[in-house]
Amino acid sequence: MIRLILTRLISSVGIFIALSILIFLLMYLVPGSVAVIILDDAATPENIAKLEAELGLDDPLPTQYARWIVNVSKGDFGTSFLNGRPVRDDIIEKFPVTLWLLIGALVIAVVFGLSVGILASLKPGSLLDRSSVLLVTLGISIPNFWLAVLLSMLFAVKLGWLPVFGYTPITEDPILWFKSMLLPWFSLGIVSSTLIARQMRGAMIEVLNTDYVRAARASGIPEHWVVISNGIKNAMIPVITVIGFQVPVIIGGSLIIELVFATPGLGSLTIQSVLDQDLPIVQAVLMVMASLVILTNLVIDISYGWLNPKMRVL
Amino acid sequence: MSDTSLTISQSIADEDFLERPSFWRRFSSQTVPMIAMIFLVILILTAILAPWIAPKDPLEQDLLEVFLGPSWEHLLGTDNYGRDVFSRIIFGSRVTVQAGLQAVCFAIILGVPLGLIAGYVGGRTDKIIMWINDIFFILPALLIALTAIAVMGPGLTYAMAAVGFGMATRYIRLTRGVVLVEREKTYVESAKVTGIQTPIILFRHILPNIFSPLVVQTSLLFGIVILVEAALSFVGAGAPVGQPSWGRMLSESRYWISQQPFLVIPPGLAITFTVLALNLFGDGLRDVMGRKITATDIKVQKQKRSRSDAAELPDEINEKSGGSGADSILSIRGLEVKFPSISGEFTVLDNINLGIRKGETLGLIGESGSGKSMTAWAVMNLVPFPGKITNGTVRLEGRNLNELTRKQMRSIRGNKIAMVFQDPLSALDPVMTIGRQICKPLKIHKNMTKRQARERAVELLNLVRVPEPHRRLDEYPHQFSGGMAQRAVIARALACNPDVLIADEPTTALDVSIQGQVLELMQDIQEKLGMAMLFITHNLGVAADVCHRGAVMYAGQIVETGKIDDLIENPKHPYTAALLMAMPENVQKINRLADIKGQVPLPWAWPQGCRFHPRCEYATDQCTKDNIELREIAPNHTVRCVRSTENILGERL
Amino acid sequence: MKKKLGMSLLTGVVVLAMLFAMAGPAMAAKDTLRVGWSVPARKWNPHLNTAVMLLGHLEPVYEGLVGEGPKGELLPRLATKWEQTKDSITFTLRDDVVFHDGTKFDANAVKANIADVQSGRYPPNAKKLIAISSVEVIDATHIRFHLNRPAPSLLYTLQRFAGLMVSPAALKSNSVDKVPVGTGPWKLDPKRTISGTKYVYTLNKEYWDPSVQGVAEIEINVLSVEQQFNGFASGELEVAGLHSAFVPRAKAAGYKILSPEGPHEALHIYDRTGKIVPELADPRIRRALSYAIDRKAFARVVLQGNSIPSTQRYLPGSQWHSEEIEDLSYNLKKAKELMAEAGVKGFTFDTYSQDAFFDMMNEPIAGMLKKIGVTMNIKSIPIGQLFVAASSGKYAASIMPLIERHPYDFYQAKLAPDAFMNPFKYEDKEIDALAKKAARMDEKSAAPLWTEMSRLAAERGYLIHIGSVHFAIMVSKRAKNVKGRSFSPYNIFFRGVTVE
Ligand code: SF4
Q1: Structural domain count of chain C
Q2: What is the ipTM of this complex?
Q3: pLDDT tens per residue across span B285-311
Q4: Domain B324-413+550-653: what homologous superfamily?
Q5: B643 touches ligand 1 (CB under 6 Å)
Q6: Distance between CA atoms of C209 and C98, rounded to whole angstroms?
Q7: What pTM does this model have?
Q8: Which residue from A minimizes the CA distance to C8?
Q9: What is the whole-number distance in angstroms between the Cα of residue B348 and the centre of ligand 1?
């Protein structure tokens, strides 16, 4: 087990470093010079030359990378091109929001995904199963931003149950916070839940058709115990990977969903920064999101080993 | 998504022995994917022919006719500048198809060669490529696209190239997986020997094999790309202003909800339907390919071992009088099992009659597909969904099991009747310790405490001769060898001192060297404990060693019953005789390959008359007419064959 | 049992659904003015901004020497009075004003601010103050700007970005990059502000004129149109700027609408030399473009009547309005004739757009030009690069607002050979001569010359005028005394507004 964790850890760190190099290089892929973006309407040739020297753009790339990564490891992502604010402030302010969004959406995705998947798998071919299959396929195909718009039209505007936009920090008012997060959670969670449901259903059907499940039934073990203890536990092994895949899916979705609900997280920050070409923020967001995904992959790999005894002995 | 579970027809379609119709025939028989494909073809034609199909110029505005509802002139109404929405949707397909093609082509051009190299060259190159691959797998496609826009400025071209770049990883995995499989195949090796150069091997042999999975992958990825394009255009970073793009139309339509709410519908549906069609098409295609090679399958480990008979399908039997009636501890009378299907029900077990006395071992003999295992499941009242026992009784010590409640039946299973399976490793739950699996029935049926159950488990492992029982109870199945695992399974079955033990091919999956030991063990235990045993096997030789009496099954019916010695020395049914000749010892003895030609027909394809007649060397016209009854030709010897009295088999052995 | 399991799963779903339903409608806080805004704040130093859309975030915090009335008129603000001569302006300053950081406002503070603008860090604003050759501090409450050239519109310039006063201490320490420090009636609360999304301003208790502080707090939320409507519907907003196209929707929902006079928009033809689009060098073709634009339909349908169509820079009533100007209004037949006369079937040029509101200007105009065979390709550019794009020389033409109100500024920005927005350095000697001559005359006698200049610019097709495009402001019933601000889309005055 320890060896498993160690090897996964090392490869994660390797991937992280490689990714950080790519993210660093973004600044140099800009056609022309970043100075033009920074200066915006103030981009005169003199100003550009002055700024380029100031930014140290003349140094050799490895030096610049070293400088950058050292700063990043201290949490210093530089300052926004646009308003000169330290990027770190933005990230610290917005990361918790996105993290909560991710956690809530993941909880919804897992709860609904597993329930629907399991219920559907218990009676394959039944009405419930067929309608769940239909829903799942539809869920994968509907653009989540359309879903978000429709949900907010219904629950916030028509019914007035939930705030239409915005965000109340959990420290300010936990109930308002919960309400302001519900629609984004569902908009993000539903699509992922369909993916999980689909996988869970398949895995459950496969597991419930195995000999050991028949054997358990043939031993007179109650069906609910068979489903939970043999069925779900075994089916979870492939599904846990799929749940892990949902982290990048939800992060990708949050980019647009946050915009629809004006949730002040990394997603709306990303879209705004992309439209503004505010590269330091884009870089920081990429680093944070990549770390998040790498970290969950690590956790998934380890829990995979924990769930699957075969991996444990390694 | 049409993998509507293991419905019977599908799992059968998976079997290789069925003559496979052409790929296209198999695909076109699926309704939903066909509709999806037709939709996609229409979509592509629409994109190509947009200027000729669209009734209006998509940019032609008429400020006097804004926000019109659907009408004959404007099928989907007009938008805020009086432009024809229908024409805009039609032209919008161009943006969608073009963006999708850009990304996917880029991904294929990049991914497939890299995957080929990684898979074929292997070693360090492979490692490096796969490692770089992992890096790109981290980031969501939309984020990659947005990053490209942040660097290069708004517009779809760079964004789609970036998405393609990110998606190349999927093709690398896919191609590499296929290459790894194909590389091992001998024809590649032999091609090497005959001196064909490497790249030619790659292209001649491997590319055709990845074509189908490539199409599946592409159609699924295309769906993702379309969603990314729509999302980019939705936030205003994608398709330029004015250009009819579905994402852009959807985004803008939100502004006019109060004036013309209908505007939200066409672009949303266009996106949804297109992605839906791509997903359904891809899924359908994958189903047709038997889900054999997809990127995920290669990575995700599955515990796929040989399937037991039961998982495969209906076995079956029938019979008239399997032996004495009254003194049987287990007696089966007129048992019939049917499965529903689209074209009505079909019978899987047809009037089975069997009986086993205390201390007796009855062999149930037949090829796979004959209905042996189904008989066992029917005894347990565990016929796989959606099958049903439609007739007959199963009595245990005179109690009709079919009339018991679910709870009562459960108290019989594992307690009065227990089962041993063909493949011990698949009959044991891989994520549960052996100890828990043996103890659970004890706790349920005997109300034992944890301690008591464990003590009993140790006792049982001793009984089945598993060394170091204390330690082994805490181990997982994968830590057991096949033979040891089967002993554990037997121990579990014996846990509650059952009256009847059903052993379904208990040695078939084991090493030859161990088979003998396990058989011996089972015989010993049966003698020691005096229980009745239903021993299922395809091997008459094994049956001869273990059983007192035998019943031979074919196509859901019992075709011959009798003392085991009679069956072996004096078989009266040509099928029994054929089984006899297929035994390895006999094959050697008569020095010729005595395989029975053909296969057991499937339940809906049972022939009229004698079900064995298509394979029977002795078939006559009469054999094809009426149903043939089981006849007693000697005391305790029944046969279902019109020619049973003619000594047709006399000179065979 | 399967049923049991199903039940327990169902229970989970029901509980979640109940949590969902429990959430009631959101409450509105009193005494807070909640505003919907379409863009986030950029730099907190007002001297580094020019886009009027960015005025809103600065408005509660900053004041200039000269204030601005609803029609753009000059009002005393930090200066109680001023006196302009040919080569100087002298201000008398208030003596009771303190910046949010405690620094006293006086003549030296003004001097530091002018120096900050003139440092050239941000050329668009530095250029606006180019006429100020030096600043003379007379005493703490008197200051004089010496001028080196005619500056007929300098006082108007001082109403906005370049003229807003920042605490000199904050300028020096650069802390203004993070938090704005002005003299205004409200100050930013950095703790509750979520940058890019929500800006919270609290009462400045030291403010010199408490009578304008109608609300204790101002909240500016960055929202899309959709969210603004939703916010109004659920009572979460009091004021939001709106594109005129949405006026019917707002009216249907029963909200009050203000439509202050908007900026003047025109299709600027940069490539008058025909360098990248040869057709545009032909004056007949440029005029054909003008005839192709149905300004009335545009005003009526797209802008819902919230606009004044015009084929020249200055509207009737202005001293610079021309009565003699040729008819350049919509005439499709004439446009086609001119195209045929020039021997051109059609051509294509690129232009740009940065957001939904520019899209709504560009798209319908593109549709109109299409009818005479001219294709206007609209490219997306990053937000904030409008002026960079205009002056880049990459685009032959684009629709832009004319924010300069005085003809002199108009000439300086768009027509002069070295004008910022004349990237192809096109020179019209007649117009140059007129402008140079008028600049040296007094306002009254210069007027006919300016009228002549703007008429020529229109008739020669340097600018294809579209008209004054009004923007709307949507006001909820709770908000009182809300006044729109001319020539500044979406902006209102926060002073004096009360809620409930
Ligand atoms: S009935 Fe005819 S076909 Fe059937 S086994 Fe006997 S001889 Fe063969």
Answers
A1: 3
A2: 0.86
A3: 877 765 433 333 322 222 232 222 222
A4: P-loop containing nucleotide triphosphate hydrolases (3.40.50.300)
A5: yes
A6: 12
A7: 0.74
A8: A115
A9: 20
